[in-house]
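Thread: "does anyone have the structure for this chain?"

Original post by V.I.:
We have the sequence but no experimental structure in hand. Need at least a predicted one for the grant figures.
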Amino acid sequence: MSTIPKNFQSVIDKTMFLAVQFTDAGYDIYIVGGPVRDGFVKRPYGENTQAPDIDLTTNAKPEDTERILSKFADAMWSQGKRFGTIGALHNGQKFEITTHRSESYSSASRHPNVAFGNDIEEDLARRDFTVNAMAIKLPEIKLIDPFGGLEDLLQHKILKTPIDAGESFSDDPLRMLRAARFSCGYKLTPVDDLIEAVQGMYERLKIVSAERIRDEFNLLITLPDPQLGLWFILKNKLAEVFLPELPALSLEQDPIHKHKDVLSHTVAVVAKTPPDLVLRLAALLHDIGKPKTRSISQSGVSFHHHDIVGAKMARKRLEALRYSNDQIEQVYKLIALHLRFHTYKMGWTESAIRRYARDAGDLLEKLNALTRADCTTRNKAKADALMASIDEFEDRYGELKAREELDAIRPELDGIEVMAELALTPGPMVGKAMSYLLEIRLEEGLLGKDEARARLRDWYRVNQITEK
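Reply from O.Q.:
Generated one for you, C-alpha cells below.
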C-alpha cells in the first residue's frame, strides 16, 4: 500500500511495537475494523472518545496472545477469551486482539457459535459489510481487501455484505440495524440485495438482546444527522421489532383539516436537536402519545394530554430496552414538559421564569433545545415569534439567575426554622408552611429572612383561625 492516510499513521505508530512482538513469535497480526475504514475517509478514528480501542486480529490462539501480551502489557483482561478476544493496555492505549474466527447464530439463539481459524480472508468474510472487511497487515503495512471494500467506500459509495446478505444477517441479525447506521453515517447507498434481505427477515432481530439493540441504536441516533438511518429502520420494518411506537406515528391524515405528518415531523425534530443521547431520545419519543390521544372534530385535530401519555409510554419502552433509570427519568421529564413553554403565552414575568426553571430543573437547557427543535412549522412568522420568545426567556433567566439562586429554588426558611418560629412540632402544618413559603419564593423572589418570618407569622395566624 503506497499511501497511508495521515490520520491513520497515529494508529499504526501506536500498534507497531505490539505487532513486532507477535511477528517475532511467529504469528501474523492485522489492524481491522474502524481504524482502517475511517483512515481512508480521512475521519479521525474515535473522534468522540478518548483513546478508543484499536482492534486487531491474529492467527495466534487466545492463550498464545495472552502469553505474548504478558511480556509488555500494562494490564490485560480476558472476559472475551471464549470468543477469542484478549484485551490489553499498553502506554495508555487499549487494544483488543481477536483470533481469526468464524461465527454464526442458530435460528433462535442470541449467542454465537465461534470457531477459530488461521486465514485472514475467512475472518474478513464473517464481517458485517465490505467497508469493514479490510485489514492492514503489520509490520509491513499491507492492505488486505478481498471483497473490494475500499472501492465500495470511496468510489461506488455503496453498502453491501462480503457474503450473501441473507446469510450474513441470519448469522447476526443486529447487522440489519448496523446497516442503518453505516449507510447513514458514511452516506452509502445499500445495494438491492441488502435491502431485500432486511425486508424479508427483519423479525429475526427479535433474537438479539435488548442491550445489544440499545447500544447499536444509540450509535445511530447520536449521528450528526440520523434522518437517513431512521427512515431505513422505518421503511424496512426494523423499528416494528424494537420501537413499534415510532412507525405508529404514521397516522392517517385528518380528511378534513389535513393535519401534518407526525412521523415526518418527529424525524425532523430529532435532526434539529444537538447529538446528546437523552435529548435525541426525548425528541424521538416526544409525540408517541399522539395516536392514543388523537381526536378529530369540526375545529380540527387535537391530542389532549399526549405529553403525559407519551412520557409514560416512553418510560415503558426505554425500560424494555434496558436504559438506565437516570436516562429514563430524564427522557420522561423532557417529554412530560415539552409543551410547558407554550403555556406562558402572556410573557415572561419573573414569577413565570422561576416556575418554568423550577419545573425543568437541571434539564432546562435540554428542554429549551427540544422546544426549539419541536417548531417545524413552515409559517415563518410563527416560528420567528417562538424563537424570539425562547431568546427572551433565556436572556431574562440569565439576568434573574445572577440575582437569585434559581438552580435550587427553595423556601428561604427551612423546616427547623419554621418550627422554631411557629413553635410547632413535626407534622402536616409544617409541610403547609413550607409550601406557602415556596409559593412566595416563586412569585416574588428573595425577600430576606426577616420578611419571610413576618409573612409566615401572618399566614399562620390566618390558618389557625380558619382551622378553628
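V.I.: this helps a lot. Residues 243-407 form a domain with the Hypothetical protein af1432 fold (CATH 1.10.3210).
O.Q.: and The chain has four domains: 1-149, 157-242, 243-407, 410-467.
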